[in-house]
From TrEMBL, chain A:
It comes from Paractinoplanes durhamensis. Residues 6-143 form the DUF3291 domain. Pfam families: DUF3291. This is DUF3291 domain-containing protein.
From TrEMBL, chain B:
The lineage of its organism: Bacteria, Bacillati, Actinomycetota, Actinomycetes, Micromonosporales. InterPro entries: ArsR-like_HTH, WH-like_DNA-bd_sf, WH_DNA-bd_sf. This is ArsR family transcriptional regulator.
Length: 153, 224
């Protein structure tokens, strides 16, 4: 067993409030995709949020949402995000989200197994990725870093 | 062309210059799943020993990968020795003289397109190009010609074993898989097969993210 798990934070800016008719398919997909994530191999934890739908609204910007979750490995997360029914929602992201431009929309980092990340940590990791590019502290699928190794005693 | 990587790629590809070996590779690439030496011997009309010889050369060159499985479905004592099965290896090989870096350019373009949020334009272009394909009555032939490695999964479904954009699709899945879906939809349209088949995003590990499903036969509608 690995001693580290992979945390991921994802962010998007909504084109319209979740209640808007243009957002119905996205809003309906949330619970489907959360159910799929929960039963996917390697899923560990996700922040449920106030609505329980896994979308966390930024305190300063109601159109900015986040998801935050923990997985056993990058392979497990990749299988859910890109090799399942979830990919079709990603394909349609421009229907619902404003392009994020040069800012990172996804960040990955390792954390000790059993720890739970916070929204604040995730936002800080996104900032590190924007500022420094991919590093072992904040990276993406395009440039993965291996899990830290616990020092041998 | 002189780096060790290039030379390894050249060595791998050079092993395909033998015509029998090339056909053995093609037989494995065309198989619906991992296949054994007997399958290849039969497909090529050669002996099993010769088939195994070429297959193992292809493994040594890194072009094929090996797995072992009992083919009868039996397990336990009496089920026999597991058969040695071959499939196309995941590694890609390309040699270019003079050196060209189209993949590097494609990565930059994909990243720029994603940043600009211009996927809709990409999809429109991909669909338009797909539509330019000549008429074709057979979806499997159409997609084989485009390198997708289609295989029937029941009478009403076609899966695509090969992703022609694999590396790029791994790096930019929503962009490249969306483009791919638009292009396959365009191909079906251009070939005149869109009444029979529908392409949809149906991602799963180990194959192209798009599958084709047969349209339900509609009752003929009278013009009003």
């Amino acid at each position: 067993m690995t001693d580290f798990h992979l945390a991921q934070m994802n962010t998007a800016r909504l084109r319209a409030p979740l209640e808007d008719p243009s957002m119905i398919e996205f809003a309906e997909g949330l619970s489907l995709m959360n159910d799929l994530a929960d039963r996917s191999p390697g899923f560990v934890w996700r922040l449920a949020g106030e609505n329980g739908d896994g979308t966390i609204v930024a305190p300063t910007d109601p159109s900015r949402i986040y998801t935050l979750s923990v997985w056993e490995s990058p392979e497990d997360l990749r299988a859910y995000v890109y090799q399942s029914g979830h990919l079709d929602y990603l394909r349609r992201r421009r229907d619902w989200f404003v392009p994020n431009g040069p800012r990172a929309a996804l960040v990955l980092w390792w954390l000790p197994a059993g720890k739970v990340p916070t929204l604040r940590q995730g936002i800080s990791r996104l900032g590190r990725l924007d500022g420094n590019g991919p590093t072992p502290d904040a990276f993406t699928f395009r440039q993965l870093f291996p899990a830290p190794e616990l020092s041998q005693l | 062309m002189t780096s060790p990587d290039d030379l390894r790629d050249l060595d791998a590809l050079a092993s395909l210059t033998d015509p029998v070996r090339r056909r053995a590779y093609q037989a494995i690439a065309d198989a619906a799943g991992p296949a054994g030496r007997d399958d290849v011997a039969e497909a090529l009309g050669i002996g099993r020993t010769l088939a195994a010889f070429h297959l193992d050369k292809l493994v040594a060159a890194g072009l094929l990968a090996v797995s072992y499985a009992r083919r009868s479905g039996k397990t336990g004592p009496g089920a026999g020795r597991p058969a040695k099965l071959y499939q196309v290896a995941a590694a890609e090989h390309a040699v270019s003289v003079p050196p060209r870096a189209y993949r590097g350019a494609a990565e930059l373009l994909a990243e720029a397109l994603e940043e600009a949020g211009a996927e809709e334009t990409l999809n429109r272009v991909a669909q338009r190009h797909g539509r330019r394909t000549p008429a074709c009555a057979d979806a499997t032939a159409l997609l084989t010609g485009q390198g997708y490695g289609p295989v029937a999964a029941g009478p009403d479904r076609i899966e695509l074993r090969n992703c022609p954009f694999h590396r790029l699709a791994e790096q930019f899945p929503p962009v490249i898989c969306g483009m791919n879906l638009a292009m396959i939809s365009g191909l079906l349209d251009g070939a005149g097969l869109d009444g029979e088949w529908t392409a949809r995003m149906d991602a799963a590990p180990g194959r192209c993210c798009v599958t084709l499903s047969k349209n339900l036969r509609e009752s003929p509608q009278e013009a009003v």
